[in-house]
Structures are given as C-alpha cells and as structure tokens.
Amino acid sequence: METPETLKDIRHSLHDLAQPLATVTGLVDLLLLEADDNHPWLQELMTISTELEKALDIIGEIRRIAREASEESSMSPATH
Questions:
Q1: Residue 80 domain-assigned?
Q2: Which of 13, 32, 49, 69 lies 20 to 30 Å from 60, alpha-carbon distance?
Q3: What is the tens place of the pLDDT at every residue in 29-76?
Q4: d(CA 39, CA 60)
C-alpha cells in the first residue's frame, strides 16, 4: 500500500500538472469569446477546450482518490 507521503507527493504533482492546463484552458476560452461563428479555427478551439476540461476532470478525480486513500491510511490503526 502507498505511504501517506507518497500519496501526498502524487496529489502535489497532480496539482502542479493541473495549473498550466488551467492556464491554457483560460486562454483558449478567451480566444473562443473573441472568435465569431465564421472563425476558421473555431471548431479546433472548441475541441481543445473540451479536451482540456476532460484532462482537468481526470486530474481532479485522481486527486480525490489519492486524498481519500491518504485519509484512510492516516486513520488506519497500523499507522499509529
């Protein structure tokens, strides 16, 4: 089983990964706000935005799982 420190490292790494993705998502969203319906890259920008959101959702879910595992391991009698 993972140690609490390993789970903490995983959570921090996922946070570090999510930050630049969130920045790019924000920039793409700004481009989408500025693009009109005839913009040649509109569909590509929408696809990028959708896929970035999926990646951020996956990262969030993995962080949740790691947090719950960390909480469970800290409550385990074997760690005390």
A1: no
A2: 32
A3: 999 999 999 999 999 999 999 999 999 999 999 999 998 988 887 776
A4: 32
Q: Tell me the one-letter amino acid at 59.
A: I
In a domain, 79, yes or no: no
pLDDT in tens, 10-27: 999 999 999 999 999 999
State the greatest distance between any 2 C-alpha atoms of the chain, in Å, as a whole number: 63
- Pair of tokens at residue 37: 């319906």
Range of the domain at 17: 4-74
Q: Report the number of distinct structural domains present in the chain.
A: 1
Output DSSP code: residue 3: -
